Structures
1.
Amino acid sequence: MKIMKGAMMPWTPALLALLIIFSAAGAEAFWPFPDKKQETVLIAEPSGAGLTLRRAFELALANAEVIAIEQEKLKEVESHFYTALDEVTPDLNFLLTEAWQDTPSKGEQTASGSDGFSSNVLRRAKPEAKFTFSQPLFSGFKEIAAINASGADKKRQTALLRKAKLMLFLEVSRAYYNLQEARQNLLLLNQMQSTLEKRVKRLEERVELGRSRKSEAEISRADLRLIEADAAEEKRLESVSRQLLEFYTGLDRIEDLDEDFPPLELKNDPSIYTAKAADRADVIAARESFNLAKEDVTAARSNFLPKGSVDGNYYTRRVGFQEGTDWDLLWKLEVPIFNGTGDIGALKEAESRRVQAELESKRLERYARTEIINGYDTLIAWISQEKALRAARDAAANNYRIQDEEYGLSLVSNLDVLDAFRRSQEVALRWSRASHEVKRKYWEFRAAQGETVL
């Protein structure tokens, strides 16, 4: 093999052009792998032995097929980087050929001439070995647009993966607090059932002594059956919520839940939270879709610009009169003049998609701010309801206790006591729902701000 001395190798201009393209596009767009950043931790791990919300979500992440699909989509998008980079990298191959042909007889060879060209053409075998090199130099910025588009697509898919995790967390948190609420309601109803059973027994004794009417005992039994009916419904809700949570986590059986709700710390000005709208996963995805559409416009415009490339060969073996020629280069420049109206239509279509993507990005960011405000107002309202219902629960329980004591002194009727009992039961169940609704709305509000949970 012969090596040229004192001359620039044919692939040197291509490498310089590649470095220039990398510098112009920016290094970040070329790196296809997601950054390893520490995510915000919103749930503290308690020391209890029960299942925490954080642990439930960790198990759900490991078992959720939808998250695995989104992760594979991200890998697919990352592969687009290499496809785009292939358009600006040179093609280098080693080609070995040997051709055979029929040659004329000796007399015919003498008659046809003995010059070098003729003797080379009339060779029976023509072996050749060479390195082939091809490098696109300029294609109207189409290659740069493709590389930048792969970077935007990677960021968009990363944001979609993050949003999928947030949606999964909201589903897990709803199932978690639905199960917790159903179990708390069952506990409340069991306590009420026990209390009412004791009251029915006392009424039966009073009926035997002639101090109460039978109708009072029957009314109490009717209330007891209503509580049993409510308990049956709560058992159904407990079973449904538990099975759903077991589906998300992959656990065979969920027994105890360990409360891990963080302390509520809300600022009075909701505009502080709306500033986070720009960092929401769906807003980021829409913004990157807009960047992707802009690169599509650049690629469509490239069809109207000249294209240049260089092809080279470096020979390691040649025969005949070309044996002394070690390399050659071919530079090509293609200037489009008229290729029909297809390129014009493709450009107009790309520009229309860019405008649509820009409008969608603005709409989503505005909607995100509205959703954060609504989530804030909803959470504040449920916090106020929970506080009022907690006070009402305590007051209703105290009222029932007082009515029961006064009934023993014959100061009030049994109907008054039963009415106080029903009110106490109703308010306690309403408070239970409100207290768990606060937890559900809290995580919805945090998710509306685009915050991660692990």
Note: The longest strand covers residues 125-138.
2.
Amino acid sequence: MKDINLDNLVRDAVKKSGLSQYRLAINSGISHAAISRFMTRNQTLTLRSAGRLLAALNLRVKLEPGE
């Protein structure tokens, strides 16, 4: 099974969105400072924060049973 790094997936989604960190902070309710630390790889995300960022980007993660 392939390991998936949620932090990297969310970072890529943020970059592709074109939203500023400031706008993402407003939309997600996560502080701009926390988003900045996350994007510079100085902090990892909690599952709750990842969900809030993805919701602000209008994205979701779907978990399915493995084969």
Note: The mean pLDDT is 91.
3.
Amino acid sequence: MTSILIVDHDVDFAELIRDGLRRRDFAAEAVHSTKDALKYLEGNPVDIVVAHVHLREVSGLELVSRLRDRQSEVLGIVVTSQGSMETAVEAIRAGAYDFISKPVSLATLEVAIQRAVAYQSLRREVARLRIAVAAAQPVGTIVGDSAAIKEVTSLIRRVADSSATVLITGESGTGKELVARAIHELSDRKHQPFVAINCGALPPALLESELFGHVRGAFTDARQARSGLFVQAGEGTLFLDEIGEMPLEMQVKLLRVLQERMLRPVGGDTEIPFGARLITATNRDLETAVEEKQFREDLFYRINVVAIPVPPLRSRPGDVLALAKFFVQKIASSSNKPVATIDEDASRLMAAYDWPGNVRELQNCIERAMALGSLNRITVDELPEKIRDHHEPQTLTATGRPDELITLDEIERRYVRQVLAATGNNKTDAARILGIDRRSLYRRLHDVPDAATAAAGTATADK
């Protein structure tokens, strides 16, 4: 049922129109001032506002203009006692959908309302189709059609236009920087800089200078002042990769900068504001790092406003061949080679392999295969030996011989190792999958000394 609000200082007229619209199956209400109209609109959904041009506090045209800015879905129909072309033009400029002169007949008003409803329905359908088309488009260079990767792209789209700090988690090689770049490219900051730095690649003193800048003479060889990456990013995006490797003393300084939105260059005595959005990433389990006092809890909550976990490649095997074909086309284009096909046997082995190095390992595999192959086809012979000889691990021993059967304790140890490996040694996720709390998992880890070894090949082991 279409909801209509009549706003007119003439009480009798407003109530007459309200009652007439109700008899025509509209959900109509009447108020007699702009103040009452705005108050009503705060708590009640309304499709169309029918407002008189001359209201006591604020004109009907101003009311329609405010509605356009605050509630773009609401359409306004302006009513005036003295109809003129000049007033009609003013109404349309203010954002009104239609203009009616008094005396108003219910039949005329109903036709105007029906046209507005049809227009409103069309606008909503166009918006829905735009969202559907956008959802079908690839996000940056993120490739895949699995449910796990669709969830990632959905989160990217939803968070892109926000200024909220984003924490991207996932194993090494899963494409965390691609996610950060996709957020930037879909945001209204896309024409501003995207600046990235690996927090684990620099010593604390140099990292502070890189992030916050320094003044001339701040330290040896500081012959001139230099702005840091927070300032260089402008109104764009600053991406701090591997933030879990940031030393504790730097974490304290970063927390203050994020709280105050101000920074002080090394050696300086003046604070500088910055406008960049912060996106961080880590392959560590930061919750565990917080518990172990290796990462500040207050900083964790500051950067973890929106979390985007990037799934490992082994959890979305259906995306492996799509990614492989993407890399084939990319490498062929950059090296002026013909696009190679991947034969059936090679495809089968690649889909069965668990890819501990994730997407980065897959790209390396394709580059190797195209460099070694002499034909326009990737065969089993071009794949690395570890992929050719790969066998799926089994938790249970498939045997009927009593001397090869194992104890329940050994089955538990193997399964804990397998779950830890599958989650990239993320203890929070592992505990959830195992159906136990983190303390119970820690107790079991004392009986699983090689749990980190089971996750070898990934870069997510706790440090």
Note: The domain at 314-388 is CATH 1.10.8.60 (Helicase, Ruva Protein; domain 3).
